[in-house]
């Protein structure tokens, strides 16, 4: 059994990265345990990276590895999660803001144009799928199967490479687009409900904590009455927005029944009796004033939590 790693050097040793010549440019992370390496895309890949004047490819696959003991489950203190990333990395653009074709190390304009016509590999991230088990002193997956460090790196590279595959790649890209579209729809529904809260209830969200409404649900105390005044209706004070909603409901209800049906006798009875009319009006206004904000508040929080879940979804290629 080994102790928790405290340096990138220890992590590098268990990954045995030095024995894999296809991975180059080992770079340790600053202020955290982890590293990155580069690997060239194979010649038979559908993605054709830009090349420099002297011939070498400018874009390579960047594989990042992070070991984070701060995320260890307290019930499994010797099981440290490994985060693995794969993305397209441009050597030139990592040092320059744009392409300057007169520079010797700059990719040629022709190769950049040709590269844009080929499918670009999708950035991938894997978290919570692989761990380093300090009791067994080996890497394991979620099912407890033992792995070699270099297998983990090779696997993310192969998945990254396969995202340009005609069938698998299209399916994966469709997954990403579907999650993005769902998030877009939820954001608009959330804004619509917030607008309804302002328009119908005369209330808005003003949380003290900036995270509420972004990464946390709203709390009832976050609802604040807008500057629109409350109107006294026979002793019951309600927002003028709620009273307007009440009047609109009455108006549309009357027109609907007048055009399509005969007005029911019980409505005629209420309308003819001032005491019953008063009781009906106060009951409906108070019900709207109580229920409508709560319903909209509930809907906004449900949409917010659904959006947060979508943001945190780890779309897997496999």
The number of helical segments is 7
Q: How many structural domains in the coordinates?
A: 2
Poorly predicted parts: none
Largest sheet: 7 strands, antiparallel
User: Kindly state the mean pLDDT as a whole number?
Assistant: 82
Across the major sheet, the strand order is 1-2-3-4-5-6-7
Tell me the distance between the termini.
Answer: 32 Å
Percent of residues in β-strands: 15-25%
* Helical content band: 40-55%
What is the overall shape? elongated
Number of strands: 11
In angstroms, what is the radius of gyration? 31 Å
Descriptive notes:
This protein is 41% helix and 19% strand. It is an alpha+beta fold and 318 residues long. It has two domains: 8-165; 179-311, no CATH class. A hairpin with a 5-residue loop joins strand 1 and strand 2 (34-39). Helix 4 packs antiparallel against helix 7 and helix 5 (240-260) packs across helix 7. The protein is elongated and about 95 Å long.
Summarize the topology:
Blueprint: H1 8-15, E1 24-28, E2 34-39, E3 59-67, E4 79-90, H2 109-116, E5 124-133, E6 138-141, E7 146-147, H3 149-162, H4 168-201, E8 203-205, E9 223-225, E10 230-233, E11 236-239, H5 240-260, H6 265-272, H7 274-311
Antiparallel strand pairs: 1-2, 2-3, 3-4, 4-5, 5-6, 6-7, 8-9, 10-11
Helix pairs in contact: 4-7, 5-7, 6-7
Brief account:
With 318 residues, the protein is of the alpha+beta class.
Key terms for this structure?
seven-stranded antiparallel β-sheet, single chain, 318 residues, alpha+beta, 11 strands
